[in-house]
């Protein structure tokens, strides 16, 4: 009885688990204890009696009933998903009865302090982040072999799905064959990467790759991959959940699927069976009422929500949408809102399952069996929204009457900086002066000739107008609206300004199908919005070169030109190296700005152009009504289109089928490859842990301001010829025209560590007056590239650190924004605040994330970046605070205390091991074959 009582006590089991974790080096002991606790866990599983059955049609499924845990009617929808995850995975060790009780009795006002081990059903990747993930898995197989382990242990235990969508670039535009030409160039540039991914698809049993030319990862997930209710091989039904290596994984929240972006490092661990360690979050309830007014689009709605939630503060929190407004909100609009959760800073932005969810599943050609299961399961679990659903209790509340939404933009460099269209001209005029002052430039208009036409290009010229994937092309209403604007404009004789690079990058083949059926594809073509490919193009920096005359004019006049895109990211230096100001807008507004050719215009009152008779034409003359849009969508979007697009999705086109991928369970590395190289993370690794030590005599590699994004830290766009990465490629015989992008070369650490902090718009305050990856080496005060300084510090045996402001690491969830600094020798970052994913990534790479005390900053403490830094009190990594001593060149000392942002006990273990991959690798290598 005593033994039974002990082994049913979660605290006792947790203590035993900790003991075993410290005995892992002794393989036999570890294995024996693991078997004991596995058997105990198996006996404890279902201690709430939640395991039951559900009959749907002629099939019966096993599921874990939430009501077994208590009265959960008023739990938020997202919290019910977490609760089910705990009920199903209860083992008394990783998931305890205490975890289940905590979620069932969730205190909405409590500060997050309870850690759970959450296991998503699957992992989703795109190729920019997927290639380095598969590179790491291949390297882990080599490392396990070197440690005497079983390489078969390195195998995704959760289904891993990758969509190749981030590599197509807009090299050709405005022609009928643009997509064909761009796809051909894509395969030519990326053959090594694609061969590698095909190897991975064959080498790993549970890894699937959707070939190029299919669509954007999030739209393919929404339209095809998502199950909404997942069924495993044992017939157990449970909510479809995922983590993804792209921050906009949250788009799937619109379908009632809980998922969010993580770094590639965390995703690899999840693939290998490592649960996501997380603190149970606060949940913000966002109440939507009313309907969008005439003239407003889903894009305007989401930009309004982004602005509101950024002001409210939702970083690290779940956001859940509810209210009567959902009754009139199409699934595509929900997905648009959910997509931009990273822009408003939340972990997720989720919508519950309801009738609209079921309608979309039918429209997107999901099977009748799947739709019936989703409905029956959600209703059985109290997870279905209808008129009788009790209103959930939330930690915090925000509300929006959608009838108040107005046409909007966001810019000029952050997605949360919404601008009402009525104020766009005045706001642009203010912003352009700020941009020129920051860059220290004086500009002047330039006369040039484009396609035989004499034109003048000035500040504010829209040189890129892109209807891009991701946020908006999943939404038929805004895509049809763009087509109708183009149709009306063409009929009136309007065209895009000659200096505008126009493009349409549909999020899936389905978009082309319904635009064709509506007769709108030819109308978009008339204005230059020909399809350029299916994937993430301009928004990720794959905008391609500007026409030579435009590029020359920008350089001659030092011009501050603009882009307008229907994406979700407009950070500095992201869209194009020559474009200083970037604006987010709905697809129909992108078409309108392409016609106007400038941001220096009031679209409400200034003419957008003239007809053949010289009569002024205005935006109102070409803007469609909501009824026109709705009628077109209703008649032109069909389930048959989804069936045609995804009927044989994994086969790919002839380009993909003709790839000659290597075989074998371990990859044959090519030392001459400039795309794929064996990473150095596991070199010299042993079973023994290196002790955690204090950091002494560290130097500042970069002193950065607020809103430094992962684009600043690890750019995805073009590689400059005179940059460290450019020089590396040229030394290996690669011509500048074949550089491709940083994003496409993430499988080669030599390029990526040279590209770290190489964004052309990065401003390092340690080297004032410079722009780009430049720093001052200390104590020599020598100006050099950040990469060169980092290598010199490593040669000198000196640790380096980063000082930063607020929102450090916001933006895309790039693992290389943590991997790169680690390879450059960065051991710690001190920032005012962090974005969620990047903080986690830093821990995952063994970098210490530290935070200034509230109200303090590098500036308030008088830090110049030229000091030498000592950190004391690190101990085993579990300390909550550290003491920092900064010694200036004159010998004066500043002392201050910082918070340690290793937020969970599991993260402490990761840090002790030197990173999450090292932790997982040692565990797997120690297991019995």
From TrEMBL:
<comment type="function">
    <text>Catalyzes the isomerization of citrate to isocitrate via cis-aconitate.</text>
</comment>
<dbReference type="Pfam" id="PF00694">
    <property type="entry name" value="Aconitase_C"/>
</dbReference>
<dbReference type="GO" id="GO:0006099">
    <property type="term" value="P:tricarboxylic acid cycle"/>
</dbReference>
<keyword id="KW-0004">4Fe-4S</keyword>
<keyword id="KW-0456">Lyase</keyword>
<keyword id="KW-0479">Metal-binding</keyword>
<dbReference type="InterPro" id="IPR036008">
    <property type="entry name" value="Aconitase_4Fe-4S_dom"/>
</dbReference>
<protein>
    <recommendedName>
        <fullName>Aconitate hydratase</fullName>
        <ecNumber>4.2.1.3</ecNumber>
    </recommendedName>
</protein>
<dbReference type="Pfam" id="PF00330">
    <property type="entry name" value="Aconitase"/>
</dbReference>
<dbReference type="InterPro" id="IPR018136">
    <property type="entry name" value="Aconitase_4Fe-4S_BS"/>
</dbReference>
<dbReference type="InterPro" id="IPR044137">
    <property type="entry name" value="AcnA_IRP_Swivel"/>
</dbReference>
<comment type="subunit">
    <text>Monomer.</text>
</comment>
<dbReference type="InterPro" id="IPR000573">
    <property type="entry name" value="AconitaseA/IPMdHydase_ssu_swvl"/>
</dbReference>
<keyword id="KW-0816">Tricarboxylic acid cycle</keyword>
<dbReference type="GO" id="GO:0051539">
    <property type="term" value="F:4 iron, 4 sulfur cluster binding"/>
</dbReference>
<keyword id="KW-0694">RNA-binding</keyword>
<dbReference type="InterPro" id="IPR006249">
    <property type="entry name" value="Aconitase/IRP2"/>
</dbReference>
<keyword id="KW-0408">Iron</keyword>
<comment type="pathway">
    <text>Carbohydrate metabolism; tricarboxylic acid cycle; isocitrate from oxaloacetate: step 2/2.</text>
</comment>
<comment type="similarity">
    <text>Belongs to the aconitase/IPM isomerase family.</text>
</comment>
<dbReference type="GO" id="GO:0047456">
    <property type="term" value="F:2-methylisocitrate dehydratase activity"/>
</dbReference>
<dbReference type="InterPro" id="IPR015931">
    <property type="entry name" value="Acnase/IPM_dHydase_lsu_aba_1/3"/>
</dbReference>
<dbReference type="InterPro" id="IPR001030">
    <property type="entry name" value="Acoase/IPM_deHydtase_lsu_aba"/>
</dbReference>
<dbReference type="GO" id="GO:0046872">
    <property type="term" value="F:metal ion binding"/>
</dbReference>
<dbReference type="InterPro" id="IPR015928">
    <property type="entry name" value="Aconitase/3IPM_dehydase_swvl"/>
</dbReference>
<feature type="domain" description="Aconitase A/isopropylmalate dehydratase small subunit swivel">
    <location>
        <begin position="727"/>
        <end position="854"/>
    </location>
</feature>
<keyword id="KW-0411">Iron-sulfur</keyword>
<feature type="domain" description="Aconitase/3-isopropylmalate dehydratase large subunit alpha/beta/alpha">
    <location>
        <begin position="106"/>
        <end position="597"/>
    </location>
</feature>
<dbReference type="GO" id="GO:0003723">
    <property type="term" value="F:RNA binding"/>
</dbReference>
<dbReference type="GO" id="GO:0003994">
    <property type="term" value="F:aconitate hydratase activity"/>
</dbReference>
<comment type="pathway">
    <text>Organic acid metabolism; propanoate degradation.</text>
</comment>
């Amino acid at each position: 009885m005593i033994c039974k009582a002990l082994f049913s006590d979660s605290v006792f089991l947790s203590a035993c688990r900790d003991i075993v974790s410290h005995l892992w080096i002794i393989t036999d002991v570890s294995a024996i204890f693991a078997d004991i606790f596995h058997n105990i866990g198996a006996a404890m599983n279902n201690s709430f009696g939640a395991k039951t059955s559900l009959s749907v049609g002629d099939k019966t499924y096993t599921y874990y009933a939430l009501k077994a845990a208590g009265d959960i009617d008023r739990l938020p929808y997202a919290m019910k998903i977490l609760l089910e995850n705990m009920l199903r995975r209860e083992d008394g060790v990783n998931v305890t009865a205490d975890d289940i009780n905590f979620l069932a009795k969730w205190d909405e006002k409590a500060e997050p302090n309870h850690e759970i081990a959450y296991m998503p059903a699957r992992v989703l990747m795109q190729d920019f982040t997927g290639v380095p993930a598969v590179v790491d898995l291949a390297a882990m197989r080599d490392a396990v072999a070197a440690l005497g382990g079983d390489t078969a242990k390195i195998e995704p235990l959760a289904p891993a799905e990758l969509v190749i969508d981030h590599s197509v670039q807009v090299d050709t535009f405005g022609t009928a064959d643009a997509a064909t030409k761009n796809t051909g160039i894509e395969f030519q540039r990326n053959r090594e990467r694609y061969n590698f991914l095909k190897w991975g698809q064959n080498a790993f049993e549970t890894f699937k790759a959707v070939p190029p030319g299919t669509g954007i990862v999030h739209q393919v997930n929404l339209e095809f991959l998502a199950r909404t209710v997942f069924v495993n091989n044992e017939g157990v039904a449970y909510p479809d959940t995922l983590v993804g290596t792209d921050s906009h994984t949250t788009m799937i929240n619109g379908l009632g699927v809980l998922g969010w972006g993580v770094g590639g490092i965390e995703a690899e661990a999840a693939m290998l069976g490592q649960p996501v360690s997380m603190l149970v979050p606060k949940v913000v309830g966002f109440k939507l009422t009313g309907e969008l007014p005439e003239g407003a689009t889903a894009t305007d709605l989401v930009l309004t929500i982004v602005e509101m939630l950024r002001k409210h503060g939702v970083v690290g929190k779940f956001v859940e949408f509810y209210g009567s407004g959902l009754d009139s909100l199409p699934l595509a609009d929900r997905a648009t809102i959910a997509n931009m959760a990273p822009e408003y800073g939340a972990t997720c932005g989720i919508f519950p399952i309801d009738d609209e969810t079921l309608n979309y599943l039918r429209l997107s050609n999901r099977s009748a069996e799947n739709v019936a299961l989703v409905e029956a399961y959600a209703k059985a679990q109290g997870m279905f929204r209808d008129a009788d659903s009790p209103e959930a209790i939330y930690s915090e509340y925000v509300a929006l009457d959608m009838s108040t939404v107005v046409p909007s933009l966001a810019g000029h460099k952050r997605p949360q900086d919404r601008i009402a269209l009525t104020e766009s001209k005045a706001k642009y005029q203010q912003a352009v002066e700020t941009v020129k002052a920051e860059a220290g430039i004086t500009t002047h208009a330039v006369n040039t000739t484009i396609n035989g036409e004499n034109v003048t290009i000035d500040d504010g010229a829209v040189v890129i107008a892109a209807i891009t994937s991701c946020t908006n092309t999943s939404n038929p209403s805004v895509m049809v609206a763009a087509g109708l604007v183009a149709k009306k404009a063409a009929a009136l004789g309007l065209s895009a300004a000659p200096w505008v690079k126009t493009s349409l990058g549909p999020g899936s083949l389905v978009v082309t199908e319904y635009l064709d059926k509506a007769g709108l594809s030819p109308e978009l073509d008339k204005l230059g919005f020909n399809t350029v490919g299916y994937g993430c193009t301009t928004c990720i920096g794959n905008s391609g070169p500007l026409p030579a005359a435009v590029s020359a004019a920008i350089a001659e006049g030092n011009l501050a030109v603009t882009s307008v895109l229907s994406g979700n990211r407009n950070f500095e230096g992201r869209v194009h190296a020559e474009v200083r100001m970037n604006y987010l807008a709905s697809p129909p507004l992108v078409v309108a700005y392409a016609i106007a050719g400038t941001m220096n215009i009031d679209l409400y009152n200034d003419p957008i152009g003239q007809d053949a008779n010289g009569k002024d034409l205005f935006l109102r003359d070409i803007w469609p009504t909501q009824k026109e849009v709705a009628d077109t969508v209703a008649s032109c979007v069909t389930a048959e289109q989804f069936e045609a697009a995804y009927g044989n999705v994994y086969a790919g086109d002839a380009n993909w089928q003709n790839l000659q991928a290597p075989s074998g369970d371990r990859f044959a590395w090519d030392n001459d490859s400039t795309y794929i190289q064996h990473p150095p993370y596991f070199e010299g690794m042993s079973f023994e842990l290196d002790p955690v030590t204090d950091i002494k005599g560290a130097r500042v590699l970069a002193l950065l301001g607020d809103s430094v994004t992962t684009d600043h830290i690890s750019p995805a766009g073009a590689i400059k010829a005179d940059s460290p990465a450019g020089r590396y490629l040229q030394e290996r015989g690669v011509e500048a025209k074949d550089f491709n992008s940083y994003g496409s070369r993430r499988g080669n650490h030599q390029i990526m560590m040279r590209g770290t902090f190489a964004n052309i718009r990065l401003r390092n305050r340690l080297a004032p007056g410079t722009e780009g990856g430049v720093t001052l080496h200390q104590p020599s005060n020598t100006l050099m590239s950040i990469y060169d300084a980092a290598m010199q510090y490593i040669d000198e045996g000196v640790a380096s650190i980063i000082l930063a402001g607020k929102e450090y690491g916001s933006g895309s969830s790039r693992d290389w924004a943590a991997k790169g600094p680690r390879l450059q020798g960065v051991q710690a970052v001190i920032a005012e605040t962090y974005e969620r994913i990047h903080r986690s990534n830093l821990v995952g790479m063994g970098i210490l994330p530290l935070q200034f005390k509230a109200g303090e900053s590098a500036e308030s403490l008088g830090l110049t970046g030229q000091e030498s830094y000592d950190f004391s009190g690190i101990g085993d990594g579990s300390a909550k605070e550290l003491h920092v001593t900064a010694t200036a060149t004159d010998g004066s000392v500043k002392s201050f205390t910082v918070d340690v942002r290793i937020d969970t006990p599991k993260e402490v273990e990761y840090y002790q091991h030197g990173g999450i991959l090292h932790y997982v690798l040692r565990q797997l290598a120690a297991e019995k074959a």
